[in-house]
Prior knowledge:
By secondary structure, the protein is α+β, with helices and mostly antiparallel strands. It folds into 2 domains: 2-42 and 151-212 and 298-352, FAD/NAD(P)-binding domain (3-Layer(bba) Sandwich), CATH 3.50.50; 96-143 and 216-294, D-Amino Acid Oxidase, subunit A, domain 2 (D-Amino Acid Oxidase, Chain A, domain 2). The chain contains 6 helices and 21 strands. Helix 1 runs parallel beside helix 6 (323-340) and helix 2 packs across helix 6 (323-340). The protein is globular, with a radius of gyration of 21 Å. Flavin-adenine dinucleotide binds at residues 8-14, 31-33, 36, 38-40, 42-46, 171-172, 197-199, 201, 218, 220, 252-253, 292, 294-295, 317, 319-325.
Amino acid sequence: MKTEFLLVGQGLCGTWLSYFLEQEQREFLVLDPGNLPNASKQAGGLINPVTGRRLVTTWLIDELMPFAKQQYGQLEQLLISRSTKPDDNLFEERSIIQFFSHPDTRSVFEKRALERSDYLQLPTEELLETKAFDHLHGYGIIQKSYQVRPDLLLTAYKEHLSRSGRLLEKKFEYDRLVPLPGGGRYDDISFDYLIFCDGTGTHGNPLFNHLPVAPVKGEALIVRAPDLPASYVFKGPLTLIPLGNSGYWWVGSSYEWDFSDPYPSTNFRSATEQTLKQWLQLPFTVTDHWAAIRPGSKERRPFVGILEQYPPIGLLGGMGTKGCSLAPYFARQLVQHLLRQAPLNPEANLRRFERN
Ligand SMILES: Cc1cc2nc3c(=O)[nH]c(=O)nc-3n(C[C@H](O)[C@H](O)[C@H](O)COP(=O)(O)OP(=O)(O)OC[C@H]3O[C@@H](n4cnc5c(N)ncnc54)[C@H](O)[C@@H]3O)c2cc1C
């Protein structure tokens, strides 16, 4: 079997990379057994333009936002045309109600709202939804945020790949890779380029052991709170993200840099349930508990590009906490780089790190 691009992994990175290769009508195959850790399926799916206590706009956000809107919209159309799109929207604009924990956080919001009124607004009237929460210090609205449903998107795209014969449900094993000048071979597949989109798989990948990876464990609960209107994302001591109009909510999440296992923990569950009981004034039941490792980098910048020593071997990863916005943007940049030698963002180009 001969292909131009062999991709390892179908998380958000592998999905977007294959989508842009498909748009360019290039030949590719994706290897993913479907039973390895996958951060994308556990993600909240939020694209929030501001971050941290100071509410600074996130890296590249003014480029990422319009790009995400356009590309998720087009991918959704493709999945509709192939009848693999589920009933729920895969992507939509959804404002975030940000509750203030302290009068100081309100002052920061007010100041930043003057500077970035495109994203930050104070409410002009009390929003009914906020009565469902115990809050003392008021709230602001983060608008032009987006919600992606990565779990639904990946499942729909997997079906699309399978139907076109481009998905091989197999695990990639390094010792079966045979690099050749200008290409390589893996089992009976010969390829021109091998691109890893293997999430935390990269962390044990001998080809990339020079990269400063920083895995971050995250946990979330799935709760049913049928009386809470699914109109906003609510951010306070926790983040509540509606899963369509089903009455189910994604409630998260934790950020653990130092962890001993990738599994759901009883500590997270009990602390989160207790916080939610105090904060949300409506009945809820916990129906599921998720945990995954975010494939991050110490510099909080992704790893994108092709290794110097192995010209045909590349990587799209290190998306950390922002895979929903960074994966499509850098997948397209990588495709443009591979096909047209377009430059990669130097802050993301993996050649900023030298192999020993
Ligand atoms: C709790 C939590 C909440 C999050 N919330 C958000 C959020 O709200 N917004 C946001 O933007 N981001 C969020 N993230 C981060 C986001 O999930 C990641 O940035 C993103 O999913 C990384 O995508 P990826 O494709 O690199 O990796 P993954 O999604 O982990 O995919 C890697 C894929 O590679 C495959 N694979 C691995 N090794 C092999 C192998 N040897 N052979 C074949 N296949 C292989 C796996 O099966 C998997 O399918 C969250 C993450 C977590 C854990």
